[in-house]
Design goal:
The complex is a heterodimer. Chain A is mainly α. Chain A has one domain (about 1-140). Chain A has helices spanning about 1-15, 20-25, 35-55, 65-85, 90-100, 100-125, 130, 135-140. The longest helix of chain A has 24 residues, at about 100-125. The chains are: A mainly alpha, B mainly alpha. Chains A and B meet through helix 1, helix 2, helix 3, helix 4 and helix 5 of A and helix 1, helix 2 and helix 3 of B.
Chain lengths: ~150, ~60
């Protein structure tokens, strides 16, 4: 679905559907560039409402990290995507699909980093996220199943 | 990714996009420290929160 919509965006609008770049551009001065970026953002925000209108229910969003950690994660995502010129959509979906060497490299690096981070936080640092959950998942995590 | 690869093939055949006057896709091919460093920071943040930008924004209108 994401791949098809970014393909459509590329064929119709001739642009990369990179969410970090589209959002970042909202803060830049070029007035002629603001309209379509706002429309894209509106689409992202309206999509769940459209989904609910057809499917009746929405899949639950599970955020089990503590607030401070979420804020730190948000800063890392923000700085990282601007510094690295893209996120999972721009590099991972569009760039890899286009065969761009920078995007392939970035996708390999952020995926590997994410795997290492999950391993370290869950299995080396004693599973901070699971300790906040209900007892069954703590048990599952401490035995290495989560 | 397969779908976006198909989109790339189609738009390159067309030469110009359907609704815009020119194609605006990144053309750089070199790797630098900013790209790799940014990807590392993003990877850490993405996995800590369990969300990257798109899902995080979409979750704003129906999240917890």
């Amino acid at each position: 679905m994401i791949g098809s919509s970014s393909a459509l965006f590329l064929v119709l609008n001739g642009r990369t559907a990179g969410i970090s770049g589209i959002l970042g551009g909202l803060l830049e001065a070029d007035r002629s560039e603001i309209g379509w970026r706002r429309a894209f953002l509106a689409g992202l925000l309206i999509a769940p409402l459209v989904y609910r209108a057809f499917a009746g229910v929405l899949p639950p969003v599970v955020l089990d990290a503590p607030l401070g950690l979420l804020m730190l994660a948000g800063l890392l995502v923000g700085f990282g995507t601007r510094l690295g010129s893209g996120c999972t959509s721009g590099h991972g979906v569009c760039g890899v699909g286009r065969g761009a060497p920078r995007s392939i490299s970035a996708t390999l690096v952020f995926t590997a980093t994410a795997i290492v981070t999950v391993f370290v936080t869950r299995h080396v640092l004693g599973c901070a996220r699971c300790q906040r959950s209900s007892p069954p998942s703590s048990v599952a995590c401490s035995s290495g199943l989560a | 990714m397969a779908a976006s690869a198909l989109g790339t093939i189609i738009v390159r055949r067309l030469g110009v996009p359907v609704l815009a006057s020119r194609l605006e896709i990144p053309t750089r091919r070199d790797l630098d420290a900013r790209l790799i460093g940014g990807a590392v920071l993003f990877g850490v943040g993405w996995s800590l929160a369990g969300l990257c930008l798109g899902p995080a924004l979409t979750a704003v209108t129906f999240g917890p």
